[in-house]
Amino acid sequence: MFCYQCEQTAKGTGCDKMGVCGKQPDVSDLQDLVVYALTGLGQAAVAAKAEGKAVPLDTGRFFAKALFSTLTNVNFDPADFKPLIEETVARREALAKVLAASLPEGPATFRPALDLAGLTRQGAEHGLKNIPETNPDILSLKHTLIFGLKGVAAYADHAAILGQEDPAVYEFLYQGLADTFTTDKDLGAWVALVLKCGEVNLRTMELLDAANTGAYGHPVPTEVPLGAKAGKAILVSGHDLKDLKALLEQTAGLGINIYTHGEMLPAHGYPELKKHPHFYGHYGTAWQNQHKEFAAFPGAILMTTNCIQRPADSYLGNIFTTGLVGWPGATHVKNGEFGPVIEKAKAMPGFAADTDQGTVMTGFARNAIMSVAGTVIDAVKAGKIKHFFLVAGCDGAKPGRNYYTEFVEKAPADTIVLTLACGKFRFFDKKLGDIGGIPRLLDMGQCNDAYSAIQVAVALAKAFECGVNDLPLSMILSWYEQKAVAILLTLLHLGIKNMRLGPTLPAFLTPNVLNYLVANYDIKPISTPEEDLKAILG
Ligand code: SF4
Ligand code: SF3
Question: Is 481 known to sit in a ligand binding site?
Fold first, then answer.
C-alpha cells in the first residue's frame, strides 16, 4: 500500500504499512484498484464522447459513487470493493462494444481477478506510484487531480441523491482520471487542469446547494441544544440530509429523540428538517472524537457518508452504516430503511434525565446572511466591523489544530468569524457576542456548504465594488480529506489569494508545485495565531 491523500498521513510523507486512519493494506490496494478500473471506464467514456456516442447518465452516477468510496474514512470493508470493481469493468465493456476505435492497453483493457486476494494483488500493482509519469512535479499534479476528483465525486454523489445532476461534471470525472494516464501535457497544462477541477467543483457545489435548499428549504438561524433530553435516542453523523430526513419520518411519534454528531449539526437549520419535534439537539464534537463520545451515547448510532473510525467493541453492536460507508462487523442498512436502527434504539436505555449543556447557533447559510447584508455593509462602513475571518475546514486529531481555537479566541472584538465544516468544533460553543446584533460567530454549515461562503464573499465584493481579494476578509483554512482538496482548488480557481492553510501542507505537493502556489496565490502555512492576526490586521 501507499497512500498520502489526507493530512494525517504517516510521518507527513505517506502511509505504507497501514493507514494512520486504520485503513488496512488490503483495503488501500483495493481502493487503488477501484481508481485504476475507473480510469479505464473514464478512457472508454472519453472515447465514446469523441465518437458522439452517449454514455448513460447512471454510469456517471455510479462513477461518482465508486470514487467517493475511496475517500478517507468512508469504507474500510474489503468485501465492498469487489462488486464496485466488477461493475466498473462491466460498464466499460458495455461502452467498448459500441466504440469504433479500440481502447489503449492498460486500465481500459484490465481484467479483474476472480477473488478478493487476486484483486488485492492487482491493486498493489496499480497504486499512485505506478501512474505513468517521469516528471515528479507532474506526478504531484496528477495525484492532486485524483484527490480533487474524489472530493468532486463526493459532492456530485450528494447532489445526485437529491436529484441534481450535470452531465458535464461526470464528463470531467471521466476525462480527469483518463488524463492521469496521458503523457503529452506539460507542467503548465497540468496546472490548468488541476484548476479546472476547482471550477468543476464549484459547479458541483452549486448543484448540491440547489439540492439541499430545494429539498429542505434555506437554512435559518437556529439555536441547538447541546445537552440531552430524557428518553430513547439515535445519533446521526455524516453529511447526508436525505438519510436524516428519512430517519426523522420513520421515528415520528415513537418517542425517540434524534441527535446530530459532527457535520450533521447544520441540519438543524433546514426548515423541512427542523419541523420534526423529535429532532432534538447536537451531541459531541467532531469525527475524531467518536471513540469517547460514541462509547458514552446510550442509543443507536447511524453513520452516513464519512467520517467513520474503527468502532470500539463497546459500541460496535450499536453503530450502523449506510450509503457508501462500511466497516467490517458493523451492520449496514440500505435504501433508507432504518428499521434495525430504530429497533436498536428502542432496546437501548436512552438518556435517563434531561441535562442542560447550553446551546449553539447554526443556520447562517448564504440566504440568512444575505438577508442582513445591508446591516453588515453599514457596520463595515461605520467601522464597527473591521475584518471578517473565514475559519473553515476539517478537524482532526493533531494537537496543532489548537491553532484554530486560539485564533478565534484571539480575534479582536470588532471582527466577525464565519465558519463551516467540522473544524468549527474547536470553537463552536464559544460565546463571542455580537456586533450591533450581528453574531460574531456565524456557522454557515457543513463543508458541503462552502458554496454559501463563496457566494457571500462574491456578494460582499459586489457591494463594496471591489474584488474578493480586496475585501477585509481572510481565509484561515484547515484541511484533512479530499473534499477539502476540491474546495481548495475551487478557491484557487476563483483567484483567491493569501489563504492560510494548516495544520500541515499536503504531502503530495512537491516543493516546485508549492513554490508555484506561493508565487501566484500567496498561499501560506499557518504560523501562530498571534503572528497571523498581526500580519493580517497590520
Ligand atoms: Fe494514511 Fe490518510 Fe491514506 Fe488513511 S487516508 S492511509 S491516514 S494517507
Ligand atoms: Fe469533516 Fe470529514 Fe472534512 Fe465535512 S467530516 S469536513 S473531515
Answer: yes
Bridge partners (DSSP) of residue 388 are 416, 473
As for the ipTM of the complex, it is: 0.97
Is 15 annotated for ligand binding?
yes
Report the distance separating Cα 325 and Cα 71, nearest Å.
Answer: 10
User: Does ligand 2 have an atom closer than 6 angstroms to the CB of 293?
Assistant: no
Dihedral sign of CA atoms 485, 487, 490, 496 in order: negative
Task: Indicate if ligand 1 lies below 6 Å from the C-beta of 20.
Answer: yes
Task: Give dist(CA 316, CA 141) in Å, integer.
Answer: 39
C-alpha–C-alpha distance, residues 41 and 456, integer Å? 38
Same fold, 10-215 and 366-537: no
Q: Which ligand is nearest to the CA of 5?
A: 1
| Long-range contacts of the stretch 178-181 (C-beta < 8 A, 24+) | 178/39, 178/42, 178/43, 178/45, 178/46, 179/142, 179/145, 180/39, 180/131, 180/142, 180/145, 180/146, 181/39, 181/43, 181/104, 181/106, 181/107, 181/131, 181/132
**Whole-number Å distance between alpha carbons of 112 and 38:** 12
239 is in an annotated binding site: yes
394 CB within 6 A, ligand 2: yes
CATH class as words, domain 10-215: mainly alpha
Buried b / exposed e over 517-527, threshold 16 CB at 10 Å, is beeebebbebe
Assess whether the C-beta atom of 147 lies below 6 angstroms from ligand 1: no
CATH architecture of 222-347: 3-Layer(aba) Sandwich (3.40)
Handedness of CA 95, 101, 105, 111 (dihedral sign): positive
Tens place of pLDDT for every residue, the chain, 538 residues? Answer: 999 999 999 999 999 999 999 999 999 999 999 999 999 999 999 999 999 999 999 999 999 999 999 999 999 999 999 999 999 999 999 999 999 999 999 999 999 999 999 999 999 999 999 999 999 999 999 999 999 999 999 999 999 999 999 999 999 999 999 999 999 999 999 999 999 999 999 999 999 999 999 999 999 999 999 999 999 999 999 999 999 999 999 999 999 999 999 999 999 999 999 999 999 999 999 999 999 999 999 999 999 988 999 999 999 999 999 999 999 999 999 999 999 999 999 999 999 999 999 999 999 999 999 999 999 999 999 999 999 999 999 999 888 899 999 999 999 999 999 999 999 999 999 999 999 999 999 999 999 999 999 999 999 999 999 999 999 999 999 999 999 999 999 999 999 999 999 999 999 999 999 999 999 999 999 999 999 999 999 8
φ, ψ dihedrals at 321, nearest 5°: -110, 155
3 lines ligand 1 (CB under 6 A): yes
Residue 107 main-chain phi, psi, to 5 deg:
-55, -30
Query: What topology does CATH give the domain 366-537?
Result: Rossmann fold (3.40.50)
Neighbours of 299 (CB within 10 A): 25
Other C-beta atoms lying within 10 Å of the C-beta of residue 382? 9
Delimit the domains of the chain by residue range.
10-215, 222-347, 366-537
> Residue 4: nearest ligand to its CA?
1
